[in-house]
Amino acid sequence: MPSKIRYLYSAQTGTELIFCERSTISYPLHNHVSVLTIGIVLDGSVMLTTAQGAEACTRNQVFVLPL
Predict the structure, then answer these.
(1) How far is residue 35 CA from its own chain's centroid?
(2) DSSP states of 4-66
(3) Residue 27 φ/ψ, nearest 5 degrees
(4) Of 26, 49, 58, 59, which one is least surrounded by beta carbons within 10 A?
(5) Mind listing the pLDDT tens digit for each residue in 11-29?
């Protein structure tokens, strides 16, 4: 099955939601200076790399990338 990605962004609140299913995407190094990002891992895992280091988030974990 192909991957499915939905992206929602609100310029009014500066909030983004990304829904990924069956995805193995890897994003290049970037920042979230003007966007609040909240993630909920429903299945699988997500590897987050920040200035504080790398962390794997797995099923049922929530992560926040503040403004």
Answers:
(1) 11
(2) EEEEEEETTTTEEEEEEES----PPS---TT-EEEEE--SSEEEEEETTEEEEEETT-EEEE-
(3) -95, 145
(4) 26
(5) 888 787 878 777 777 777 7
CA 64 from chain center: how many Å?
8
Tokens of 16: 């983004």
| Cβ proximity of 67 and 35 under 8 Å | yes
How much is the average pLDDT of 3-10? 83
User: Would you say 41 and 23 are in contact if contact means Cβ atoms under 8 Å apart?
Assistant: no
Q: Which two tokens stand for residue 57?
A: 């988030």
